[in-house]
Design a protein that fits this description.
This protein is of the alpha/beta class. Helices cover 20% and strands 26% of the residues.
Length: 226
Protein backbone atom coordinates (compact mmCIF):
# COMPACT_ATOMS: atom_id res chain seq x y z
CA UNK A 1 0.00 0.00 0.00
CA UNK A 2 1.40 3.37 -1.09
CA UNK A 3 2.03 5.93 1.54
CA UNK A 4 1.13 9.61 1.27
CA UNK A 5 4.77 10.50 0.76
CA UNK A 6 5.02 8.04 -2.14
CA UNK A 7 1.91 9.47 -3.84
CA UNK A 8 3.21 13.01 -3.47
CA UNK A 9 6.54 11.97 -5.02
CA UNK A 10 4.77 10.29 -7.95
CA UNK A 11 2.62 13.41 -8.46
CA UNK A 12 5.72 15.61 -8.59
CA UNK A 13 7.32 13.28 -11.14
CA UNK A 14 4.14 13.43 -13.24
CA UNK A 15 4.13 17.23 -13.11
CA UNK A 16 7.73 17.28 -14.28
CA UNK A 17 6.94 14.93 -17.17
CA UNK A 18 3.96 17.07 -18.22
CA UNK A 19 6.05 20.25 -18.05
CA UNK A 20 8.82 18.61 -20.07
CA UNK A 21 6.33 17.41 -22.71
CA UNK A 22 4.83 20.90 -22.96
CA UNK A 23 8.28 22.45 -23.35
CA UNK A 24 9.25 19.96 -26.05
CA UNK A 25 5.97 20.63 -27.88
CA UNK A 26 6.52 24.39 -27.59
CA UNK A 27 10.10 24.11 -28.80
CA UNK A 28 9.00 21.89 -31.71
CA UNK A 29 6.27 24.35 -32.80
CA UNK A 30 8.63 27.30 -32.39
CA UNK A 31 11.30 25.53 -34.42
CA UNK A 32 8.77 24.73 -37.13
CA UNK A 33 7.63 28.37 -37.31
CA UNK A 34 11.24 29.49 -37.54
CA UNK A 35 11.88 27.03 -40.37
CA UNK A 36 8.81 28.28 -42.27
CA UNK A 37 9.88 31.90 -41.79
CA UNK A 38 13.38 31.06 -43.04
CA UNK A 39 11.98 29.33 -46.13
CA UNK A 40 9.74 32.30 -46.89
CA UNK A 41 12.69 34.65 -46.55
CA UNK A 42 14.83 32.46 -48.80
CA UNK A 43 12.10 32.28 -51.45
CA UNK A 44 11.55 36.04 -51.30
CA UNK A 45 15.26 36.70 -51.73
CA UNK A 46 15.32 34.24 -54.62
CA UNK A 47 12.48 36.03 -56.39
CA UNK A 48 13.74 39.55 -55.80
CA UNK A 49 17.47 39.11 -56.26
CA UNK A 50 18.06 36.06 -58.47
CA UNK A 51 16.49 34.38 -61.47
CA UNK A 52 13.40 32.32 -60.79
CA UNK A 53 13.05 29.36 -63.14
CA UNK A 54 9.76 27.43 -63.20
CA UNK A 55 9.57 24.33 -65.36
CA UNK A 56 5.79 24.09 -65.17
CA UNK A 57 2.83 26.48 -65.34
CA UNK A 58 2.26 29.33 -62.89
CA UNK A 59 -1.11 30.22 -61.41
CA UNK A 60 -1.76 33.37 -59.38
CA UNK A 61 -4.99 33.42 -57.42
CA UNK A 62 -6.26 30.18 -59.01
CA UNK A 63 -6.65 26.61 -57.71
CA UNK A 64 -4.82 25.09 -60.66
CA UNK A 65 -3.17 26.94 -63.59
CA UNK A 66 -4.49 26.45 -67.12
CA UNK A 67 -2.45 24.13 -69.34
CA UNK A 68 -4.33 24.28 -72.64
CA UNK A 69 -3.19 26.35 -75.60
CA UNK A 70 0.44 26.62 -74.43
CA UNK A 71 -0.65 28.80 -71.48
CA UNK A 72 2.27 29.34 -69.06
CA UNK A 73 0.81 31.96 -66.71
CA UNK A 74 -2.75 32.33 -65.44
CA UNK A 75 -3.75 35.25 -63.22
CA UNK A 76 -7.11 35.68 -61.51
CA UNK A 77 -7.16 39.45 -61.03
CA UNK A 78 -5.48 42.56 -62.35
CA UNK A 79 -1.86 43.22 -63.32
CA UNK A 80 -0.22 46.30 -61.82
CA UNK A 81 2.75 48.02 -63.50
CA UNK A 82 4.14 50.12 -60.66
CA UNK A 83 7.14 52.14 -61.77
CA UNK A 84 8.04 55.79 -62.29
CA UNK A 85 7.81 55.66 -66.10
CA UNK A 86 5.56 53.91 -68.60
CA UNK A 87 5.08 50.14 -68.41
CA UNK A 88 6.20 47.93 -71.29
CA UNK A 89 5.90 44.44 -72.77
CA UNK A 90 8.60 42.90 -74.97
CA UNK A 91 7.73 40.27 -77.59
CA UNK A 92 11.18 38.71 -77.95
CA UNK A 93 14.93 38.90 -77.27
CA UNK A 94 17.96 39.81 -79.37
CA UNK A 95 19.01 42.77 -81.51
CA UNK A 96 17.03 41.82 -84.65
CA UNK A 97 13.62 43.15 -85.73
CA UNK A 98 11.23 40.25 -85.04
CA UNK A 99 8.02 41.84 -86.44
CA UNK A 100 5.79 40.09 -83.92
CA UNK A 101 2.31 41.03 -82.75
CA UNK A 102 0.72 41.05 -79.31
CA UNK A 103 -2.56 39.19 -79.83
CA UNK A 104 -5.62 39.33 -77.55
CA UNK A 105 -7.81 36.23 -77.76
CA UNK A 106 -10.98 35.02 -76.05
CA UNK A 107 -9.73 31.75 -74.48
CA UNK A 108 -7.51 28.72 -75.27
CA UNK A 109 -10.62 26.70 -76.11
CA UNK A 110 -12.18 29.43 -78.31
CA UNK A 111 -9.35 31.72 -79.50
CA UNK A 112 -11.52 34.29 -81.23
CA UNK A 113 -10.51 37.95 -81.19
CA UNK A 114 -10.98 40.00 -78.01
CA UNK A 115 -11.33 43.77 -77.74
CA UNK A 116 -8.98 46.39 -76.36
CA UNK A 117 -9.99 49.49 -74.41
CA UNK A 118 -7.60 52.43 -74.16
CA UNK A 119 -7.81 56.10 -73.26
CA UNK A 120 -5.34 57.29 -75.90
CA UNK A 121 -3.67 55.37 -78.74
CA UNK A 122 -0.48 56.01 -80.73
CA UNK A 123 0.17 53.98 -83.90
CA UNK A 124 3.81 54.58 -84.76
CA UNK A 125 7.22 52.90 -85.05
CA UNK A 126 8.55 55.69 -82.82
CA UNK A 127 6.90 55.99 -79.40
CA UNK A 128 8.29 59.53 -79.04
CA UNK A 129 6.37 60.64 -82.16
CA UNK A 130 3.37 61.87 -80.14
CA UNK A 131 1.66 61.66 -76.77
CA UNK A 132 -2.07 61.36 -77.48
CA UNK A 133 -4.35 62.42 -74.68
CA UNK A 134 -7.43 60.58 -73.53
CA UNK A 135 -10.00 60.07 -76.31
CA UNK A 136 -7.31 60.75 -78.96
CA UNK A 137 -5.87 58.55 -81.72
CA UNK A 138 -2.63 59.48 -83.51
CA UNK A 139 -1.49 57.52 -86.57
CA UNK A 140 1.95 58.22 -88.02
CA UNK A 141 1.35 56.31 -91.24
CA UNK A 142 -1.73 55.39 -93.25
CA UNK A 143 -5.10 54.37 -91.84
CA UNK A 144 -7.12 51.79 -93.79
CA UNK A 145 -10.79 51.50 -92.79
CA UNK A 146 -13.13 48.86 -94.25
CA UNK A 147 -16.28 50.12 -92.59
CA UNK A 148 -18.36 53.20 -92.04
CA UNK A 149 -16.87 56.20 -90.26
CA UNK A 150 -19.30 57.79 -87.83
CA UNK A 151 -19.03 60.81 -85.59
CA UNK A 152 -17.78 64.37 -85.84
CA UNK A 153 -15.08 65.32 -88.30
CA UNK A 154 -12.81 68.22 -87.40
CA UNK A 155 -13.21 71.26 -89.62
CA UNK A 156 -11.71 74.73 -89.62
CA UNK A 157 -13.31 78.12 -89.43
CA UNK A 158 -14.96 79.39 -92.60
CA UNK A 159 -12.51 81.47 -94.64
CA UNK A 160 -13.79 84.26 -96.92
CA UNK A 161 -12.38 85.89 -100.03
CA UNK A 162 -13.80 88.91 -101.90
CA UNK A 163 -12.98 90.34 -105.29
CA UNK A 164 -9.94 92.63 -105.11
CA UNK A 165 -8.40 90.88 -102.10
CA UNK A 166 -5.23 88.75 -102.19
CA UNK A 167 -5.62 85.00 -101.77
CA UNK A 168 -6.46 83.91 -98.23
CA UNK A 169 -4.08 81.44 -96.57
CA UNK A 170 -5.85 78.55 -94.82
CA UNK A 171 -4.61 75.28 -93.21
CA UNK A 172 -1.68 72.93 -93.98
CA UNK A 173 -2.36 70.88 -97.11
CA UNK A 174 -0.58 67.77 -95.82
CA UNK A 175 -3.03 67.34 -92.95
CA UNK A 176 -6.32 68.64 -94.37
CA UNK A 177 -8.56 68.81 -97.43
CA UNK A 178 -10.05 72.14 -98.58
CA UNK A 179 -13.39 72.75 -100.31
CA UNK A 180 -15.66 75.65 -101.28
CA UNK A 181 -18.76 76.25 -99.17
CA UNK A 182 -20.14 79.42 -100.82
CA UNK A 183 -19.82 81.21 -104.17
CA UNK A 184 -21.49 84.47 -105.28
CA UNK A 185 -20.97 87.12 -107.94
CA UNK A 186 -21.44 88.09 -111.56
CA UNK A 187 -19.85 85.44 -113.80
CA UNK A 188 -19.91 86.47 -117.48
CA UNK A 189 -17.83 83.65 -118.89
CA UNK A 190 -14.82 85.81 -119.51
CA UNK A 191 -12.33 84.11 -117.21
CA UNK A 192 -14.02 84.83 -113.88
CA UNK A 193 -13.36 82.14 -111.30
CA UNK A 194 -13.00 81.35 -107.62
CA UNK A 195 -10.86 78.46 -106.38
CA UNK A 196 -9.04 76.69 -103.57
CA UNK A 197 -5.50 75.65 -104.40
CA UNK A 198 -2.34 74.34 -102.76
CA UNK A 199 0.94 76.26 -102.57
CA UNK A 200 3.97 75.87 -100.32
CA UNK A 201 2.29 73.27 -98.10
CA UNK A 202 -0.87 75.33 -97.44
CA UNK A 203 -4.33 75.69 -98.91
CA UNK A 204 -5.37 79.08 -100.33
CA UNK A 205 -8.72 80.57 -101.25
CA UNK A 206 -8.79 83.13 -104.07
CA UNK A 207 -10.18 84.04 -107.45
CA UNK A 208 -9.99 86.12 -110.63
CA UNK A 209 -12.61 88.61 -111.80
CA UNK A 210 -11.67 88.83 -115.49
CA UNK A 211 -12.85 91.84 -117.50
CA UNK A 212 -16.56 91.66 -116.70
CA UNK A 213 -16.73 89.92 -113.33
CA UNK A 214 -18.33 91.83 -110.50
CA UNK A 215 -18.86 91.31 -106.75
CA UNK A 216 -17.16 87.93 -106.70
CA UNK A 217 -17.15 86.29 -103.30
CA UNK A 218 -16.26 82.82 -102.02
CA UNK A 219 -16.00 80.91 -98.73
CA UNK A 220 -14.16 77.70 -97.90
CA UNK A 221 -13.27 75.35 -95.04
CA UNK A 222 -10.63 72.71 -94.35
CA UNK A 223 -11.33 69.29 -92.83
CA UNK A 224 -8.86 66.80 -91.44
CA UNK A 225 -6.27 67.34 -88.72
CA UNK A 226 -5.40 70.82 -87.37
Amino acid sequence: MATLETLEAQLEDLKKEIAKAREETFNSAKEKDEQIAELKKELLNKVTTDNLIVNSNIGVGVREPETKGDVKLEIAGNILFNRNGDGGIFTGVGDQELNRYLQLSNSPELPTASGLKAGGVLVSDDYLFANPGKNDLVVKGNAEIHGEIRGKLWYSQEYEWRQGQPAVKMMRSGRTVAFLTYVRGKFEGNGEKVKVYESGGYWYLGGEAGDLGKDLKAKARCIGMP
